[in-house]
Amino acid sequence: MSILKKTLLSFCLLTSAFPLLAQPKQEKMKGHLDMIRNILDVGYAPISWKEKHFGWNLDDEIEKAKQKVDEQPDISVKSFQKIVRDFFMSMHDLHVSARFHSTEYASLPFFVKGVDGKYYITYINHEMLSPSVYRMEKGDELVSFDGKLTDEVIINLQQELMSTTCEGTDRCMTELFLTNRIGSHAHDVPTEPIMIGIRKQNQQRINYYQLTWNYEPELVSNHFKINTSIVDKEKLFLEQNILKPQMVSSYNDFFQSLMIKDLQAGIKPGARKSFLPLLGKKWWSSGSDNTFYAYLYENECGHLIGYIRIPHYTGSTDEVFEFAKIIEYFEERSHALIIDQVNNPGGSLFYMYALAGILTDQPLYTPKHRVSISQMEVAQAIKLIPLFETIANDDDAKAVLGDLFSGHPVTHQMTKFFLNYFRFIVSEWQSGKTVTDATSLYGFDKINPSPLACYTKPILLLVNELSISCGDFFPAILQDNKRALVMGAKTSGAGGFVLRHHFPNLFGLSAFNYTGSIAERIDKKPIENLGVTPDILYKISSVDLQSSYVEYASEINKTINSMVNCETN
Predict the structure, then answer these.
(1) Are residues 294 and 351 in the same domain?
(2) How large is the C-alpha radius of gyration of the chain?
(3) Residue 555 in domain
(4) Cβ(477)–Cβ(58) below 8 Å
């Protein structure tokens, strides 16, 4: 293992907080809210943007949360967890969330997606919902849910559980939550049977079925006795892998937990295959053991078009090599390339950079970040500067970072970017700043073309409301550099890297995430809350949901055909 990996990947700072005398439950809860407030005041980079864009104020929101605690004399742990959840929701940030220690979970064996107030079934686990009894199929309309119109249930659930200001993303997340309730997200987890109403395609009659939730009970008790005679010594832990910035949805744990037997259905965010059908006559495809689902197909004019699915940005050097090999094949044989990045929950910044570098023969400008800094980041930088100053050549660089860094060849030049970035952090702190000026993360203001492969032909990039974090940044980079035409729905607007915090407590709070930077594009507009607006907007239709996305596939082919000058009647 390289020197840096040995010394830094486990790097963490342990800070003892001031002891708090044991207090009544409500006072302890408000003390924990103050602790959260202090952490965010130091580390949450988009504070100014949130105040400007929404009128959001950290102190005001903490006080509102405290008032909710005071209003409940016999407040339960679950009620406090909801208050904490709602506080984080007030920040309108997909990177921000709280998680709680809980095993309680309930699910129903189907998923839905809505269009214009109507909701259609997109997936059914028939092993758990026998088709001989429950005559439900993909494309059928879910008219009612638990005695109410489905649209009414979705609207109420969205108001309770989601608040990112990207209406499309909030709605897509709520559609997943309709049939999946999770205690670790401070959801109310149902146990009682419900009645659903189903209207089959081309029929007016509504068929009603009673279903029971697949329920996992709560095994983590939230009942405890406050000891008023001892000192409660809290410790605050902050772990940050400083050279591996993460840009992933705070709901990624939920996505991974979704109970979907048929992963080829394309419903699960981050799945190898998306919901898109085959786009044409297939001439070649990647093996089933390949990370990337890819194929080469023929369009109406006889042109060969490449298609590759990027399911997420959580990968390593091996995956970068796989991607490069496919792109090299497409460069030789295809006229254009379709990249499917719908339902992508994000991942690692440098892995995403490595994939982007394979798609260009010119350097690509990257978004700049305003980074929240404190003594911790400065101390880390001061510790690393002497190490990077000793690097005089490529061999020295490889001794520190290894031969490859997230798929990027390690060179002396790369380490100089890191060194300059660490010096920048120290300089910004010494000038009195707690949020830096806009800068390129780790000095990489451009992504150089990859030596592994290079794609030079037209690219169509597909995105949607569940393209999150790195799923926002990838289309932003390709669009800003005019390297790809972006098609679909506006991305989620999760615009920075993610930090994670946890501290010992008796209220079930496992950890919380928050955003440590706020990024801006070439036009100086932030990605946070705004996302990426596609060059070609496409809204999923009811026909798509009832007929395997045939209209979407048709529009994709029309667009890619125009990009390769294929004229059809």
Answers:
(1) yes
(2) 25
(3) yes
(4) no
Q: How is 360-375 classified by DSSP, letter by letter?
A: -SS-EE--EEEEB--H
Distance CA 254, CA 162 (A): 14
Among the listed residues 552, 466, 478, the one whose alpha carbon sits nearest the alpha carbon of residue 174: 466
Distance (Å, whole) CA 336 – CA 347: 26
At 105-158, the pLDDT tens digits run 999 999 999 999 999 999 999 889 998 899 999 999 999 999 999 999 999 999
175 and 280 inside one domain? no
Judgement on whether residues 400 and 461 belong to the same structural domain of the protein: no
| Residues 166, 492 contacting (CB under 8 angstroms) | yes
Determine whether 382 is exposed, middle or buried from the number of CB atoms within 10 Å of its CB (0-12, 13-18, 19+): middle
pTM for the whole thing?
Answer: 0.89
Domain with residue 159: its CATH number is 2.30.42.10
Beta strands in 57-200 (DSSP E): 97-100, 105-107, 110-115, 118-124, 141-145, 148-149, 180-182, 194-199
Residue range of the domain that includes 409: 373-434
Q: Which pLDDT tens digit goes with each residue over 409-422?
A: 899 999 999 999 99
